[in-house]
Amino acid sequence: MRILVAEDDPRLLIQLGDALQGAGYAVDLADKGVDAEHLGREAAPDAVVLDLGLPGRDGLSVLRNWREQGLQMPVLILTARGSWQDKVHGIDAGADDYLAKPFQMEELLARVRALLRRSAGQAHPVITVGAVQLDTRSCTVSVGDRPLDLTSHEYRLLSVLMHHAGSVLSRTELSERLYEQDAERDSNTIDVFIGRLRRKLPEGFITTVRGLGFRIAAP
């Protein structure tokens, strides 16, 4: 899953990026409003962590522009302001959740997980499809009672597919969700990871839709 973080505090920006990458997400970083708005359009993030106090173009303006352009990714607003008026303005602009600074990183990660689940129509932190269970809290996967040993990229790829169970995802879409914005991408590596996952998962769990991509059956 791909997360965009827009924050003007350089230290907090790095901390957020490290925490989200450690949780298994591909992360894009922006410290200015214009850059954040551009990445929100071009990088196709699955969710956004957005600071209101961005320089050049504030977070509320960025968020309003996204929504006016029809972009529907879930957005978690960060701000040092704690008044109820700021929360109302953020929600009215199209935010899905709100977190005031200072905050615990564990709470932010939990809120991001919840946003991703809700946007995918999932209510429980453990996504279950057949015998396969993906725990979004611990970043672990099991088949029945048997835990699977997955690399970080295998976990990320399986997480994307299971969050979008029932949908066909192309190699390009999977590649975009697997790698950061400035990372070198090769959609052919998706086939390599799919092959590895298939050897570890039940037969037929990941299906190929000829000419379109890959799909996991809806739970």
UniProtKB/TrEMBL annotation:
Q: Record's InterPro entries?
A: CheY-like_superfamily, OmpR/PhoB-type_DNA-bd, Sig_transdc_resp-reg_receiver, WalR-like, WH-like_DNA-bd_sf
- What is this protein's record name? Two-component system OmpR family response regulator
Pinpoint the OmpR/PhoB-type domain residues.
124-218
Q: Does the keyword Oxidoreductase apply?
A: no
Residues of the Response regulatory domain:
2-116
Q: Which residues carry this modification: 4-aspartylphosphate?
A: 51
Name the DNA-binding stretches.
124-218
Keywords, A to Z? Answer: DNA-binding, Phosphoprotein
Transcription regulation in keyword set: no
Q: One Pfam family name from the record?
A: Trans_reg_C
Organism in which the protein naturally occurs:
Hydrogenophaga palleronii
